[in-house]
Amino acid sequence: MMCSDLGVPTGDEGYLLDPADWTESLAERLAAQVDLNLSAEHWQVIHFVRQWYEEHAVAPSGRDVTAFMKSQGASRNRLFELFPYGYVQQTCKIAGMKKPRSWSTG
Question: Of 32, 33, 70, 100, which is the most buried if we count CB atoms within 10 A?
Fold first, then answer.
């Protein structure tokens, strides 16, 4: 399915079908759809997710991302302050991950 306003193939819930189609510009447009202005802190998380995907060919688990947040001096709750609709629904989508098969990101 093609999401016409993004110009890249997405599934019915707006997740990219191919993470290789992701760009920072696309991330900004995805974030804007949910009225989220991406700060430097958002970008740190998004780039972590992208780097993890490049290294492991799967999106990091929520546990991996919260460990990353802690390594940056932020609490687990900070992730949910940055992405209030949740790790899977917002973070993974904005970072260009495929829709998870379940609540895990595998």
Answer: 100
Contact 55, 66 (CB under 8 A): no
Which residue, 72, 70, 52, is CA-closest to 61?
A: 52
68: in domain = yes
Q: Which long-range contacts (CB under 8 A, 24 or more apart) does 58-66 make?
A: 58/105, 58/106, 59/92, 59/95, 59/97, 59/98, 59/100, 59/105, 59/106, 60/105, 61/104, 61/105, 61/106, 62/87, 62/88, 62/105, 65/91
- Whole-number pLDDT of residue 60: 93
101 within some domain: no
In a domain, 39, yes or no: yes
Instruction: Give CA separation, 37 vs 32, 51, 73, 77, in Å.
Output: 7, 21, 22, 18
Looking at residue 104, its pLDDT comes to 47
